[in-house]
Amino acid sequence: MRQRFRLDRPARCGYLALALLACHRAPQPLVPVAAPPASPEQVREWVAATAPRGHVLYRFRWLFRDDRSSAGGRGSARMAAPDSLRFDVTGPLGSRAASAVVVGDSALWAEPPDAVRDLVPNYPLLWALFGVARLPEDGAELRGVQDAATTAWQYARAGDTVTYVRRSGRENTFLAEVRHGGRVVGRAETTFDDDGTPRSARLTVPSVPARLDITFTASASASAFPPEIWRPRQP
Predict the structure, then answer these.
(1) Going by C-beta distance under 8 Å and a sequence separation of 6 or more, which residues neighbour residue 166?
(2) Residue 43, H or E segment
(3) What is the distance between the alpha carbons of residues 215 and 125, in angstroms, rounded to a whole number?
(4) pTM over 0.90
(5) CB 71 within 8 A of CB 178
(6) pLDDT tens digits, residue range 160-193?
(7) SS3 83
(8) What is the CB neighbour count within 10 angstroms for residue 57?
(9) Taking a C-beta distance cutoff of 8 angstroms, is the pair 206, 185 a contact?
């Protein structure tokens, strides 16, 4: 995914400006500090509202940028309820192809082996790019708030926090943030059309800093996917 390109000086200065901006504008907490505890039943209900339904194929364009380079291309993702995902991406002119099958919070296989790691820092953020929340680990501390337009909830366990926010109204959005030891690992934001289809997604990784933008170009439902979809490509 991280194909390197030579940048001219103006573009490089622009990326350095982006880096400085990221350093001075640290993401603020998405769930109010005073948010009350949430019950496991509430969290399961909130997560279920984002869960994949049936089988759907997404096609998209992607663009990755950091302070050193820029790369982009096309991709597809096949999602099957309740928690299976096959994604394929390529760079310019079909270069730098990568594929993986993810079930829940683990990869069954990936080609090349670091395909998932090069795309996103962890699995909750990968799923969040498609508007899907994950359930908390056992023993996590749960907090959350809900009103007519917004549902925000958070899991905290052993110094790690995962936060989700769903907003509806003039624009339907889904946000996810992962922190480790108080440091933001990554933040994903997905925007949806009125029918619930993802329109665009952005992943920001402040520590690099880096940004991955996804623009969804098509989606189609299916009764099922052929079994070979879940297998690695044959040489």
Answers:
(1) 46, 49, 50, 150, 151, 152, 173, 174, 175
(2) helix 40-48
(3) 16
(4) no
(5) no
(6) 999 999 999 888 999 999 999 989 999 999 999 9
(7) coil
(8) 16
(9) no
